Amino acid sequence: MRTTSNPVFRNLPKQEGGYATFGSAQAGAAQVAQEYGYGQRPAPEQYQTPQRSMTIDDVVTKTAITLGVLTVAAVISYFLVDSNEALAAPFVIGGGLIGFVLVMIASFGRKMDNPAIVLAYAACEGVFLGAFSFLFTNRIIQGAEASVLIGQAVLGTFGVFFGMLVVYKTGAIRVTPRLTRMIIGGLIGVVVLMIGNLIASFFTDGGFGLRDGGTVAIIFSLVCIALAAFSFLLDFDAADELIRAQAPEKAAWGVALGLTVTLVWLYVEILRLLSYFNND
Predict the structure, then answer these.
(1) 50: confidence class by pLDDT, cuts 50, 70, 90
(2) How many Cβ atoms from other residues are within 10 Å of residue 264's Cβ?
């Protein structure tokens, strides 16, 4: 399996073979399961309580639960900020930072399969997204229909997600080491530009112009959306590898976390892009 751009999946080992399978033939089960942190699966007779292997249904269920928690938290956050705009900044900063910390704990602490961490992340990101959406649809964009803009961003996010899922399942784009290197290289470049733009904004109004709504900002958002979309291919490949490796059922929580991280980034970038075109 190729190295993924998503930090949640990065502890998975490299392994050749297999595209667009999501639960096809078993390959390298002992190695992948051991490196993922579960140890080698013993013979069935050694189990006192057998563990069921992860399936695509587990991935769908856990991802749906995670996104459900995120959505509920986002709706509550949005209406709380609507009633008291002073909450916007604390929700955006606090929710974003805590969510980031939880992802780091899950990734580097090898706790990707911990449902408490995954659902806590979803709740924090929901608080962040609700306040962030309010700011972009009610303060930055004057006169825009908030519900319409948010609906367009949500529709665009899941449209891209399901579109890339079809691309992966059909094998239209193969997840190769070269593609993986290109995506990761692009992500590193984007992160460096974001940090540079933030630093430059302390000294120059608008920094490098990556977020001011101009032509450069539009191009930058399009690049970010493209990278997020292609990152789904790496996420699907990592999830596919876990299924083939017969990882325990609870590993589906880690897959849900990884997909949610990418979905959140994609939604934010699409909302930014839409805001540029609707900004008076």
Answers:
(1) low
(2) 25
Burial class (CB in 10 A: 0-12, 13-18, 19+), 65: middle
Of 242, 86, 233, which Cα lies nearest the Cα of 167? 233
Which pLDDT value is given to residue 8? 54
Buried-state track 113-132, b at ≥16 Cβ within 10 A, e below 16: bbeebbbbbbbbbbbbbbbb
Cα gap 274→41, rounded to integer Å:
48
| Closest listed residue to residue 95, CA positions, set 272, 277, 274, 268 | 268
In terms of Cα–Cα distance, which of 136, 145, 123, 153 is closest to 88? Answer: 136
Helix (H) or strand (E) holding 217: helix 215-244
pLDDT greater at residue 84 or residue 23: 84
- Cβ atoms of residues 57 and 239 within 8 Å: no
Q: Are 200 and 207 in contact (CB under 8 A)?
A: yes
Residue 7: pLDDT over 70: no
Q: Which of 128, 226, 200, 160 is nearest to 218 (CA)?
A: 226
- The set of residues, in sequence order, having a beta carbon less than 8 Å from that of 251 and lying 6+ positions away, is 36, 38, 54, 112, 113, 242
pLDDT of 25 higher than 90: no
**For 119, how many CA atoms within 13 A lie in the half-sphere containing its CB?**
9
Nearest to 220 by CA among 202, 232, 239, 206: 206
Cα–Cα dist 197/49, whole Å: 54
In this prediction, residue 54 has a pLDDT band, given cuts at 50, 70 and 90, of confident
Tell me the pTM. 0.78
Span 176-189, pLDDT tens digits: 888 889 999 998 99
- Which residue reads 């998503």 in tokens? 6
